[in-house]
Design a protein that fits this description.
membrane; transmembrane helix; 239 residues; single chain; 8 helices; 2 strands; elongated; two-stranded antiparallel ribbon; mainly alpha
Length: 239
């Protein structure tokens, strides 16, 4: 595949992943599908959400470079070695943003969500006299399960009382961010290599133009020979 066509494919492929990251990050502001938690984001939202890992990291920092990378694959000003060099810089920016999103997603999944829970030291059950506090009750290893992570023990998720089903909510959306940013990392890294080859070897846009010209030339030559052959046959018949 030509470097120009490869850039065009990578640019187009990055669009949906960047949009998915932005949407997933936006939804994370509304756990339990309620707006009240977004109003107290610093206290009642997972820290990784407020870092804008999907909106900025896997979103804007990937979407803008994707536009330039896509343009590099088209004929015109950017479809040359200069455009390929710029695509390397853009791919590096996209790689940085997507890696940030990837790492923060892993951290968020490992530490669990911020939620309202009852501070009971000996059991996960609650009583009416306990005070609801906000924090990350699932971020520490579980001693009752040989210090394993909460992900493997769904029965511990019930410790989060508010927002409703916040553990599942965070796991699903952060997993989407993790998957999308992983594809972004792969595509941006491929574009780094592709852009390097493009700077050294150039794009295929000029080659395609020359191929079309050669085809037209061959076609015209073939038409002239074919016409001459027909005329010779007609002359032979008349004689």
């Amino acid at each position: 595949m030509c470097t120009g066509k490869c850039s065009k494919f990578i640019g187009i492929a990055l669009y949906p992943f960047s949009v998915i990251c932005m949407l997933a990050n936006a939804f994370l502001y509304f756990p339990g599908w309620s707006v009240e938690y977004a109003e107290l984001a610093g206290e009642k939202l997972t820290t990784e959400v407020t870092t804008l890992l999907g909106i900025v990291g896997g979103g804007i920092l990937v979407l803008i470079p994707a536009i330039q990378i896509h343009t590099t694959g088209r004929k015109g000003f950017c479809g040359n070695r200069c455009g390929m060099f710029l695509s390397i810089l853009c791919a590096a920016i996209g790689l940085t943003g997507s890696l940030f999103c990837l790492c923060m997603s892993v951290v968020a999944i490992h530490r669990g969500p911020v939620c309202g829970y009852y501070n009971t030291n000996t059991t996960l059950s609650t009583t009416g006299n306990d005070t609801l506090i906000w924090g990350r009750p699932l971020q520490d290893p579980l001693p009752q399960y040989n210090n394993q992570n909460y992900i493997y023990h769904k029965d511990t998720w019930s410790i989060c009382v508010e927002p409703e089903d916040v553990v599942e909510f965070n796991l699903i959306l952060f997993s989407i961010l993790l998957g999308s940013s992983s594809f972004e990392v792969i595509l941006c890294f491929i574009q780094l290599l592709n852009g390097l080859f493009g700077v050294i070897c150039g794009t295929c846009n000029k080659k395609d133009d020359m191929d079309y010209k050669d085809m037209d030339k061959d076609s015209s030559v073939y038409d002239d020979k074919d016409t001459a052959s027909i005329c010779e046959k007609k002359v032979a018949i008349c004689e």
